[in-house]
């Protein structure tokens, strides 16, 4: 997605050899027009797959998930971090290890919002080690819904998450893949 590459080139900040900061349009401030375009692009890639639900994880996944779900005309469900006391009844949950923060969080989704008849598209902003995506895949598995695939805004190709998920036979579509952040330079695949 050329528009997104341009935005990353202009506004992305290379924090280290492994971390790309995109707070000005995706992770803190949101660029509505770009987010809508991102949503359209992800939706377009899965438009013939009978998606009935988009699944993401709070917080940064929600905006892009909403944009894609608007196009697909299906609801968005976002997994909550650290089981809130308001979540009642049957719950699906998974443990997600954050490599950047070196901590584990439990993510949860109420069984009310994922049914065995659902065809689920997982969406997230970043794919690094894949911990978040793997947690969401586990939640889909518990619900017995069908996983259609995973849509990612920015994949870091030099980290192993994408390959591991694809090796499991999961369809992963990333709008841009960053090949390297070495020496402060953003290189795309
Ligand atoms: P993983 O899910 O692919 O394994 O990644 P990891 O545990 O390393 O990611 C932890 C958090 O950092 C996630 O957000 C993830 O989206 C984000 N992240 C990973 N690599 C990068 C990066 O290079 N740049 C940016 N900007 N974010 C990255 P989170 O903790 O769930 O936070 P949020 O969704 O509330 O923003
Ligand atoms: Na994030
Ligand atoms: Na995220």
Automatic annotation (TrEMBL):
Q: Does the keyword Ribonucleoprotein apply?
A: no
- Gene label: xpt
Q: Which residues form the Phosphoribosyltransferase domain?
A: 34-157
Major enzyme class: transferase
Key word DNA-binding present in the record?
no
**Catalytic activity entry:** XMP + diphosphate = xanthine + 5-phospho-alpha-D-ribose 1-diphosphate
Q: Which SUPFAM superfamilies match?
A: PRTase-like
> What GO cellular-component annotations does this UniProt entry give?
cytoplasm
Where is the protein localized?
Answer: Cytoplasm
Give the residues the record marks as binding xanthine.
Answer: 20, 27, 156
Tell me how this protein assembles: Homodimer.
**UniProt-recorded Gene Ontology molecular function terms:** xanthine phosphoribosyltransferase activity
The record describes the protein's role as: Converts the preformed base xanthine, a product of nucleic acid breakdown, to xanthosine 5'-monophosphate (XMP), so it can be reused for RNA or DNA synthesis.
Pfam families per UniProt:
Pribosyltran
**Might you give the EC number(s) for this enzyme?**
2.4.2.22
Biological processes per GO annotation: purine ribonucleoside salvage; xanthine metabolic process; XMP salvage
* Protein name, UniProt field: Xanthine phosphoribosyltransferase
The primary location reported for this protein is cytoplasm
């Amino acid at each position: 997605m050329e528009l997104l590459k341009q935005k990353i080139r202009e506004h992305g900040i290379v924090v280290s050899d492994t971390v790309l900061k995109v707070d000005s349009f995706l992770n803190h401030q949101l660029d509505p027009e770009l987010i809508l375009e991102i949503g359209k692009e992800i939706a377009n890639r899965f438009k013939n797959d009978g998606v009935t639900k988009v699944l993401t994880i709070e917080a940064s996944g929600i905006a892009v998930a909403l944009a894609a779900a608007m196009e697909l005309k299906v609801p968005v469900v976002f997994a909550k971090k650290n089981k809130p006391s308001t979540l009642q009844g049957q719950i699906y949950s998974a443990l997600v290890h954050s490599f950047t923060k070196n901590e584990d969080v439990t993510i949860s989704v109420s069984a009310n919002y994922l049914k065995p008849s659902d065809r689920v598209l997982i969406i997230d902003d970043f794919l690094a080690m894949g911990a978040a995506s793997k947690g969401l895949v586990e939640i889909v598995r518990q619900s017995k819904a069908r996983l259609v695939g995973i849509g990612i805004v920015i994949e870091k190709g030099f980290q192993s998450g994408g390959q591991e998920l694809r090796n499991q036979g999961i369809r992963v579509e990333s709008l841009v893949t960053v090949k390297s952040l070495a020496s402060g330079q953003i290189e795309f695949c």
